[in-house]
Amino acid sequence: MVNGLRLPGEFRERLAELADGRARPAVPRNAATVVLLRDHPDAGLQVFLLRRAASMAFAPGAYVFPGGSVDRRDGDAAIAWAGPSPKWWGEAFSADETLARELVCAAVRETFEESLVLLAGPTGDSVVDDTRDEEWETGRRALLDRSLSLAEFLDRRGLVLRSDLLRPWSHWITPLVEPKRYDTRFFVAAIPEGQRARDVSTEADQVAWLRPRDAVEAAHRGEMFMLPPTLATLTDLTAYDDVAAVLATDREIKPWLPEVRVIDGEPYLLYPEGTV
């Protein structure tokens, strides 16, 4: 049995084109993903998942965490910042300080854009407690259409980005065979008290809070489609009982680059050994 995901047949030709030099791998875009966590009084540790709309060009129908590409303005040094510095994040993710700043800012921005959860507050030791009114929604839409940068959004509200609410978790790079590729750092974060994650993403058609084990089992039954980074992350999280245990974990971050290989005439996206 192949430990991987069977892909459409056209990937055979793409692999052949790469092998004989007729095609070159796409350059991956830097991206950030945030695994939002909460402790449910009955269910225990839960994770927030979005299902990508069928109309999306990349991974339609897949269950994912909030996240997306770095915006060129995410590295704005004017952003009010509390918590570990870009240098610290760079060391955690093997990135230079500029990219590390961009990744943290992208993580905060994309999480707000896709769930209305905002990892920022009026001071370096506080956090906004509710983002569900029309004023917040107006700001979210402005971030989405890029008429407002994250720095401008935070500055207008007198808010400080809370990098201390995030923890580094993993690093995944889209396989060489994919025409659209991402170099993604994964973060984990607890949803701030008083805030609620909502189904606001234009890229998703369904959201859910699930126990990691339930999500993994649903994926193995074929009820939820997930790419390797999502499934591997959820599999890792099955070892934890609550949010505090996840956030206290000291992770060694190394990049994972899944391989696509033809096996018995069919292309498969193989799960890196030890991840699933």
Automatic annotation (TrEMBL):
<dbReference type="InterPro" id="IPR015797">
    <property type="entry name" value="NUDIX_hydrolase-like_dom_sf"/>
</dbReference>
<keyword id="KW-0464">Manganese</keyword>
<dbReference type="InterPro" id="IPR039121">
    <property type="entry name" value="NUDT19"/>
</dbReference>
<keyword id="KW-0479">Metal-binding</keyword>
<keyword id="KW-0378">Hydrolase</keyword>
<keyword id="KW-0460">Magnesium</keyword>
<feature type="domain" description="Nudix hydrolase">
    <location>
        <begin position="28"/>
        <end position="232"/>
    </location>
</feature>
<protein>
    <submittedName>
        <fullName>NUDIX hydrolase</fullName>
    </submittedName>
</protein>
<dbReference type="GO" id="GO:0016787">
    <property type="term" value="F:hydrolase activity"/>
</dbReference>
<dbReference type="InterPro" id="IPR000086">
    <property type="entry name" value="NUDIX_hydrolase_dom"/>
</dbReference>
